[in-house]
Amino acid sequence: MKKKQVGIFSGSFNPVHTGHLILANYLLEFTSLDEIWLVVSPHNPIKEADSLLDEKIRLEMARLAVEEFDRLLVSDIEFCMPKPSYTIDTLTRLRSENPDVEFTLVIGSDNWRKFPRWKEHQRLIEEFRILIYPRPGEEVGADRPLPENVQLIDAPIVEISSTFIRESIRMGKNMRAFLPAQVYDYILSNGLYR
Ligand SMILES: Nc1ncnc2c1ncn2[C@@H]1O[C@H](COP(=O)(O)OP(=O)(O)OP(=O)(O)O)[C@@H](O)[C@H]1O
Ligand SMILES: O=C(O)c1ccc[n+]([C@@H]2O[C@H](COP(=O)([O-])O)[C@@H](O)[C@H]2O)c1
């Protein structure tokens, strides 16, 4: 029987925004992936932890964001794993807990550039299919050719970042169209990022 195809889209999601959802929506409709799992990472190994909102709050926002999508799910698997969150450990664990699923790692071209710094990046390439989607100013393939099971996809580029949203909210700007409505309402009612 053909295994269920699941794309792993992991990140800090501080907060999750419309750019993330547009990409996930695109992957579900225009690739062979059956589901996308947003994996909320408590601590990205190459990001400063002090700018991060509490992991449970980021998880709650991710859950609110996917409410209206039935093939987009949220995973907190990294919450009970050692920190910082290494993707090879997460994928290895997901694979052993879900033998009926084939996992594909979905990463942005910004992360592909930094990929040689990731833990056991060679094993990640050998054991998992990787989809790279374009991020502004981050060209792929110019510096090193793509391995066979690494594929560049032609997803639309949406130039929104969590950093821009956090800074704008701090300045008192109205950012309603940049985030799912439930997430923006949650941020306002809890006074987050002020
Ligand atoms: N606008 C976007 N469109 C598609 N993917 C995105 C977008 N913004 C971020 N991503 C990707 O989503 C994943 C999780 O993103 P992350 O939580 O780091 O968001 P971010 O907006 O890049 O955050 P920050 O500004 O805090 O660095 C990463 O792989 C990142 O490349
Ligand atoms: O495994 C690694 O060595 C590794 C190094 C850098 C980033 N990652 C993961 O890549 C994901 C994207 O990170 P971010 O912060 O750009 O959203 C997030 O889940 C990180 O834990 C993983």
From TrEMBL:
Catalysed reactions, semicolon-separated: nicotinate beta-D-ribonucleotide + ATP + H(+) = deamido-NAD(+) + diphosphate
The pathway it acts in is: Cofactor biosynthesis; NAD(+) biosynthesis; deamido-NAD(+) from nicotinate D-ribonucleotide: step 1/1
Keyword set for this entry?
Answer: ATP-binding, NAD, Nucleotide-binding, Nucleotidyltransferase, Pyridine nucleotide biosynthesis, Transferase
Can you give the residue ranges of the Cytidyltransferase-like domain? 8-167
Which InterPro entries does the entry mention? Cyt_trans-like (IPR004821), NadD/NMNAT (IPR005248), Rossmann-like_a/b/a_fold (IPR014729)
MF (Gene Ontology): ATP binding; nicotinate-nucleotide adenylyltransferase activity
Q: Which CDD domains match?
A: NMNAT (cd02165)
Transport: present as a keyword of the record? no
Q: Quote the PANTHER family the UniProt record gives.
A: NICOTINATE-NUCLEOTIDE ADENYLYLTRANSFERASE-RELATED, PHOSPHOPANTETHEINE ADENYLYLTRANSFERASE
- Record's function text: Catalyzes the reversible adenylation of nicotinate mononucleotide (NaMN) to nicotinic acid adenine dinucleotide (NaAD).
- The entry's protein name is Probable nicotinate-nucleotide adenylyltransferase
**Natural source organism:** Petrimonas mucosa
Q: What is the lineage of its organism?
A: Bacteria, Pseudomonadati, Bacteroidota, Bacteroidia, Bacteroidales
Q: Which gene encodes it?
A: nadD
